[in-house]
Amino acid sequence: VQLVESGGGLVQPGGSLRLSCAASGFTFSSSRVSWVRQTPGKERELVAAITTAGGNTIYADSVKGRFTISRDNAKNTVDLQMNSLQPEDTAVYYCNAEGVLTSIWGQGTQVTVSS
Known about the structure:
mainly beta, seven-stranded mixed sheet, four-stranded antiparallel sheet, 11 strands, globular
């Protein structure tokens, strides 16, 4: 049972990154999936979430219009397309899959926005 994030890295302000979360070992299609970020000294912040079939999404006000969450249940993946990145987007980004009785977290991927 695991989630593995990928796609983080260093990008200049205004640039883009695409994060991917790959699931294995559980019924991914039955899970609501969120991307959450955390910076040192701050609480984790919900960035975006998507329902099981992908019909509904929510976004933090700080990323609306810049980030897009999507999922492919056939591939057991959820992606986060991040555009117009700003230094304040710098954080470790975590993927979280919530089922009826479970909450699974990935190990996180670092995103650094800097010139």
